[in-house]
Amino acid sequence: MKVYVVGHMNPDTDSVCSAIVFSYLLNKWKEKDGLIKIDGEAVPVIQGEPNPETKFVLEKFGVEKPEIIEDVEGKTIALVDFSEKAQAPKNIEKAEIIAIVDHHKIGDITTPNPILFVNLPVGCTATVLKKLFDWSGVEIPKELAGLMLASILSDTVIFKSATTTELDKEAAKELAKIAGIENIEEFGIEVKAKLSAVDELSARDIILRDFKDFDMSGNKVGIGQIELVDLKLIEGRKEEILEELKKMKEEGGYHTVALMLTDIIKEGTELLVVTDDASVIEKAFGKKLEGNSVWLEGVMSRKKQVVPPLENAFSS
Amino acid sequence: MKVYVVGHMNPDTDSVCSAIVFSYLLNKWKEKDGLIKIDGEAVPVIQGEPNPETKFVLEKFGVEKPEIIEDVEGKTIALVDFSEKAQAPKNIEKAEIIAIVDHHKIGDITTPNPILFVNLPVGCTATVLKKLFDWSGVEIPKELAGLMLASILSDTVIFKSATTTELDKEAAKELAKIAGIENIEEFGIEVKAKLSAVDELSARDIILRDFKDFDMSGNKVGIGQIELVDLKLIEGRKEEILEELKKMKEEGGYHTVALMLTDIIKEGTELLVVTDDASVIEKAFGKKLEGNSVWLEGVMSRKKQVVPPLENAFSS
Asked: What is the mean pLDDT of chain A?
């Protein structure tokens, strides 16, 4: 009986790499000192095509792309990087879950029997897996150390995300040594740059990559975000993006449509805005729009730094 | 801000001792190498009066009984030995949960933020805590090693329960060394004997200590269980218990009322039965009742070894 190890929907680098890494560990645990013993062989699977960043990481360390799985009915599975039914493959309720390794809030997945569930409040599932290797005395192969390091750098935005902990930084240092990566920061930029490749995307694709609608005091507001290692990468596309934002505003009946161009190295965001009332933006961020743009120093998070001040500005 | 560490309702030895032990560990983690860092002081609490076994264990190792807590509204809490809302204190949904350590199936408790959740499929929460001490390099004080050893022996019925794993046995060995307990088995019998003390209990109390109702093909069936280190302890009470079972059968309109007298050392159960149809018992267990009693060799578990054959006998 195979054990399928799977990460969440819309897979990112951590969820793909952690499936590969946890499969390896489960197979090693069959030999000795395992926290659990599985019967068959563990194999990594994914819920969709990897993104360009993940593809780069797999190629760099010479690791094969896992097979895609959609339905897990009747299968034995282990979960990495999620514990919510909404992010699970089809028919999760008809699968047997034997383990969960994660770093998110505790989700709504329950089990009829005791299983291994290790969740730590750290920046990345790969950091939890690093601990599980250490705790069970299993050596980490060079190429898997590379995948784990890349996952940590990706999930923590090169240690800049507010979710980063000391455990993530320690794990990254040790993994870099095993993987033979000398400059962690440089490698992090190389990894994150892959999702900064916007040349082949249409303006609409750029806006919609990570776009959410909000209701702010009865006004429809849409905010997208794209993280880039350098805003120069998108400099020549701004006019085109603004035209597209205007179109989306008309089509969707928005009060305001905005796109956060977040510079993860400089740690700030250029906000492109088309709106019925520019004073709301000024009220929210204490700065005037220049044309359709405003630079917000230190702003990295839509959830924590953009939505709350905007909601306050609309409601006051 | 205090962190209250609490086990499940109707506390047993593992849930009380694990609350004490995890509190100690959380406080140690504030100093160094913690998997999580809490702000205030961790204090153990319990959801009800400890049973005689737990009281014996606390006294033996000179550890104070935790305070009782009923409502956790607005409090910061950590859970040990459960992850189900049904076993939680009042207003759990209005508390902030910062950690869960357990060895059961994964329950329905969710959190809005990432937390530490370590659940292993082993026989006892104390075994998981032993691992957490090892993994974070914290030394276990002698008296806490005693509590942990007693918890493992209690939960695994001195390693005889089907839930026992190699990890439990290893942990028990190492804990016995720290606690200065030379004969683990003997100590286990001493611990388990405390719940075998039936002299001060009425016949009704003995039957109801762990009693459950079942609907078997439309027939009301009640089955109690009491675990004893030696059936001699209850020998002189059997007639009285049978009279009480008959009374309960009348009062409750049962088809069958039974009490399992389980000998945890001999590993078998004497089943006392009053029933409308003795042939059902014969069909279920392949043995005839002698008077109102039948010896079932190797039977330890109501859930796995008594209820299923009885249900089959009723339905066929």
From this structure: 95
CB atoms within 10 A of CB B93: 12
- The answer to whether the beta carbons of residues A19 and A6 sit under 8 Å apart is yes
| Domains in chain B: ranges and CATH | 3-195 (3.90.1640.10), 203-315 (3.10.310.20)
| Per-residue DSSP letter, A65 | P
Of residues A115, A122, A134, nearest to B106 (C-beta): A115
Cβ(B154)–Cβ(B168) below 8 Å: no
Within 8 A by CB and 6+ apart from A84, the residues are: A8, A104, A107, A108, A109
Q: CA of A131 to nearest chain B CA: how many angstroms apart?
A: 9
pLDDT of residue A195: 85
- The alpha carbons of chain A give a radius of gyration, in whole angstroms, of 21
Cα angle for residues B13, B200, B185 (degrees, 5° grid)? 40
Cα separation, A128 vs A115, whole angstroms: 16
How large is the ipTM? 0.85
Contacts of residue B304 in chain A, CB cutoff 8 Å? Answer: none
List the binding residues of B for Mn(2+).
8, 12, 14, 81, 103, 155
- Taking the Cβ of residue A165 and every Cβ of chain B, the question of whether any pair is shorter than 8 Å is answered with no
Per-residue pLDDT tens listing for chain B (316 residues): 899 999 999 899 999 999 999 999 999 999 988 999 999 999 999 999 999 999 999 999 999 999 999 999 999 999 999 999 989 999 999 999 999 999 999 999 999 889 999 999 999 999 999 999 999 999 999 999 999 999 999 999 999 888 899 999 999 999 999 999 999 999 999 999 998 888 889 999 999 988 889 999 999 999 999 999 999 999 999 999 999 999 999 999 999 999 999 999 899 999 999 999 999 999 999 999 999 999 999 998 888 899 989 999 999 8
Interface test with B, best of A76, A97, A106, A109 (most B CBs within 10 A): A106
Of B36, B112, B167, the CB nearest to A121: B36
Cα B217-B218-B221 angle, rounded to 5 deg: 90
Distance CA B283, CA A27 (A): 45
Residue B183 burial (10 A CB sphere; 0-12, 13-18, 19+): exposed
